[in-house]
Amino acid sequence: MRLVPRLGSGIPLVARTHEMRRLRAAFARAERREAGAVLVSGDAGVGKTRLLTALGEHVTAAGGLVLTGRCIDVRDGGLPYLPFAEALAPIGSSADPLVAAAVRARPALARLLPQSGEPEPAVPGEHGQVSANEREAMRRPRPEQDLGQLQLFDAVLGVLTEVAESRPVVVLLEDLHWADSSTRNLLSFLLSRLRAQRLLVVASYREEDVHRRHPLRGLLSELVRLATVEQVALSPFGTADARAFVEALADEPLAADVVADIVARSEGNPFFVEELLATDADCRDLPAGLAEVLLARLERLPAETRRVLRVVSVANEPVSHAALTAVSGIGELELDEVLREAVQHHVLVIEGGNYAFRHALLQEAVYGDLLPGERTRMHAAYAARIRSVQQGRGHDAKLAFHSLESRDLVTALPALLRAMDEAEKLGAPGAALRHAEQALSIWDAVPEDGRPEGVDELKLLHEASYFAGTSGEPERAAAFARSATEALKPEMSSDRAAKVWRRLAEALLALEGTLDEAVVAMDKAWALVKDAEPSATRAWVLATRAGFQRLVDRPDEALDNALAAVADARTVGSAGAEASALITLGTLADSAGDAEEARERLRQAVRKAHHGKALNVELRGMYFLALSYDDQAEMTDALAHAKRGVERAEESGLAWSSYGLELRARQLYLRYLSGDWPAEDAAGRAGRGVSSAVAARILANWALFLVARGRFEDAAKLLPGLRQHWVADIQIALSSGDAAIELATWRGEHEEAVRVTEELVAWLEKMEPLLLGGIRIVTLGLASAVARAAEARAHGDQAAAERMTEAGRRLLEHARRCAKDGAPRSGTLGPEGRAWLARAEAWGSALEGPADPGLWAAAAEAFGYGAVYEQATCRWHQAEALFAAGAAAAAVAPLEAAHAVADRLGALPLRDAVRDLAHRARVDLPGVTPVSPHPVPRPMADPLTDRERDVLERVALGRTNRQVGEELYISEKTVSVHLSRVMAKLGAGRRAEAVAIAYDRGLLAAPAPKD
């Protein structure tokens, strides 16, 4: 996997905006002769070097002098003043006569600096290591060893003060935790005498290495009491920033599971993220280089401490003192001292009275370093202790884990089954599935007399299929269900066999393209119970069969079977089966146009399913209830029911079951239509562990938000991966296709938009002819056909104009056929379908001449049912048509209405298009400052380089990174690097924000008005 180039520690600076502002503020004070110091602390790899590097770039851009020195890890002897010698080397070799005079005036300083012909101190590697030859060269006795320290200290302070008279000076000292005593003394002297110099000292150190007895600890406690010294602590990324960092580093889209795994394992440490990501796409194994770095920290600890750390690593969770005593075999008092050593060196932390590794990857590294024999023995010891203590939540899962790892399968199998049942009760189907799969994997290896009573392989397969389906893995649910049918034996009861075939039918129903196979499975289930007496199994089969018959457009048979299911269910008291049948009766009523009866049936079904604890049926009822209101464009009620359904799915642990997913996808789309746009990207991500097709269902809807908000690069990165999932769910094709067409249209790539539209329409016709969603798709493509035809006419390309006009006619005709011959769920075309058809007719009016303002007004009115973004888009085009028709006064109101919505939603492309139209029409929009036609003079203190400005100017014009690179003849990656630096300098978190700040500060000339 390719990565973007690393910058220091690889951390994107925008994630450290707060810390960077503090450092810049300290530098600003130094410029005003308020000298100061900042101590930057944080774990290894958290981004200290990158932060200091960025500060150095900022200082250099502002005309300051940056002096950098680094300490290195030399265990067998110190290197006196190494970081100061490195930092002051540029002063000693400076050609500036004033600086040279300042150095000559201080003989003590001259002895510290490299002599003529002597090499400068080596720059250490990434982890502070140097070669043996370099270390030996730096060990040479220096002349300052026989010079009084005070003279040397005064010389360093004096030369820095004098140089700072001509320009502000920033001294950057890295890795103070490795500093020798002389360096610490000089630093203490320097910081205690900061007064009115134009001087800033910034020093970094690893907090995890500065344990209680570390010599730097005492110095830090003294320094922080000085008024001129402040502290900046760098924490690991939070989840959102870590996720953004992973996605920014990856050169290709990553599966949601992979991203979540890297975020969790790295715990937000940028260096760990890079190392994990650089390994492979799955990142399951700890990289050897990272493991060595982590284990190197432990080499300095006593052997007994390392032994106990190995014991802790096997626990795989925070472990109690009593458990460590039992498993390690070390006495209480000795164990106390060993644990104290580990805690003081920041290897272990105390969580709720238990001990855990400070970082999960350190636990992985220690565990991975165990020998096979000791690993097995320790797991067995933990399992023995778990069996001996009182049972509680998670007891069986822990016992199963350690028994599996120690190969005690007879103990592991029943423990797994108990853990599976517990996970189901706790609403954790994903965990239940893992336990079921583990039980299946060892089933044949456990002797028959060691298997629990009442459980066989068929039951486990049935359970695994159910848990896979309810945890967002429909493909695996179908695979387990198929295996269960293959495991059926002739001597098994028809009741049990019917359950197996019904489970297969339900599992197949969640997949695209398997309806015929599902109907066959359902018929087999029905044949097994058709002539049986009423029972819960028969009631369930009838209810499920009724639902299938409705899907294959056999409403009369569906009605008969649903009523029979209700009768059987009431006879045997199966509330879940009755609720399932009532849902089918409700959906049949909706299709017949009786919304009132439909909703009453559905509400009754939801209540019965809730009381009968049939959670999946309850969610199904809530989904169809929300859909009933959605069909009639009753947006408020539809959103409310979808929201309640999502909340119920989440609290019951079924968030990613079939109908949990449908509810979430429907809620997200309704929020898009209604203008209730989520602020966080988390709304567009699927849960961890779900299949790629399930994740794509949510991401396809999220792509609509990305395009509408102008996040074109994010959308372009996402959409190709969604294309492969069209066959998994037709809704993925509709939503992602919609986003792809709109993306191409906003980018002005109208030929591409028409091509994508025609490709998608052809695909839809093969899958489900005259689908009503096709009206929306062809209408979006029709917009680009009209725009491209107009462009071609303007350039005299009559052939292209005729080709696009003909394509537009075909698309318009397809929209009309979908509206006329499609099959609405409620029997008649609903408000949403009518609105999109009106919009298609409005575009059709512009195929060969000016658009009809009246048709655009009708389209805008049609979207008034609550689709605020689509209505705003229509009002923009209505204003365009009115201006073109010479009705400028009438155009102002729809233009202002469109701008108000786009501005509120943050729909940047629409907002900018409306503003551009207003500017060309000489209309002042409320709350928008008119754009000056004259360039703003560039300020004197300009932080941007010429190349950075070239990049930002093209970004301001809407170019992608690739387009910018092509125009400037540089790589796309180089463009990304320049943009990162620009955002860092301007304190911006996004490209658009950087452009806005640059305009506000006059760093970019305002765009000239278009004729």
Supply the key terms.
single chain, 1011 residues, Rossmann fold, Serine Threonine Protein Phosphatase 5, Tetratricopeptide repeat, five-stranded parallel sheet, 47 helices, 64% helix, disordered N terminus, WH-like_DNA-bd_sf, nucleotide-binding
Radius of gyration, in Å, reads 35 Å
CATH topology-level name of the domain at 13-233: Rossmann fold
Biggest β-sheet description? 5 strands, parallel
Coarse structural class: mainly alpha
State the CATH architecture of the domain at 13-233. Answer: 3-Layer(aba) Sandwich
What would your notes on this structure say?
This protein has 1011 residues and is mainly α. Among the domains are: 13-233, 3-Layer(aba) Sandwich (Rossmann fold); 239-285; 475-687, Tetratricopeptide repeat domain (Serine Threonine Protein Phosphatase 5, Tetratricopeptide repeat); 946-1000, Arc Repressor Mutant, subunit A, CATH 1.10.10. Helix content is 64%, strand content 4%. The protein has a five-stranded parallel β-sheet with strand order 2-3-4-1-5, sandwiched between helices. Keywords: ATP-binding, Nucleotide-binding. Residues 937-1002 form the HTH luxR-type domain. InterPro entries: AAA_16, P-loop_NTPase, Sig_transdc_resp-reg_C-effctor, TPR-like_helical_dom_sf, Tscrpt_reg_LuxR_C, WH-like_DNA-bd_sf. GO terms for molecular function: adenylate cyclase activity; ATP binding; DNA binding.
Helix and strand arrangement:
Elements: H1 17-31, E1 36-42, H2 48-61, E2 65-70, H3 82-92, H4 97-104, H5 107-112, H6 132-138, H7 149-163, E3 169-174, H8 181-192, E4 199-206, H9 215-223, E5 229-233, H10 239-249, H11 256-266, H12 270-279, H13 288-296, H14 303-315, H15 321-328, H16 332-344, E6 348-351, E7 354-357, H17 360-368, H18 372-388, H19 395-405, H20 409-425, H21 429-442, H22 457-470, H23 474-486, H24 494-509, H25 515-529, H26 536-551, H27 555-572, H28 575-591, H29 595-611, H30 615-631, H31 635-651, H32 658-674, H33 692-708, H34 712-723, H35 730-746, H36 750-767, H37 773-794, H38 798-821, H39 831-844, H40 853-862, H41 868-884, H42 888-905, H43 908-920, H44 946-956, H45 961-968, H46 972-986, H47 991-1000
Parallel strand pairs: 1-4, 1-5, 2-3, 3-4
Antiparallel strand pairs: 6-7
Helix pairs in contact: 1-2, 4-7, 8-9, 10-11, 10-12, 11-12, 13-17, 14-16, 14-17, 15-18, 18-19, 19-20, 20-21, 21-22, 22-23, 22-24, 23-24, 24-25, 24-26, 25-26, 26-27, 26-28, 27-28, 28-29, 28-30, 29-30, 30-31, 30-32, 31-32, 32-33, 33-34, 33-35, 34-35, 35-36, 35-37, 36-37, 37-38, 37-39, 38-39, 39-40, ...
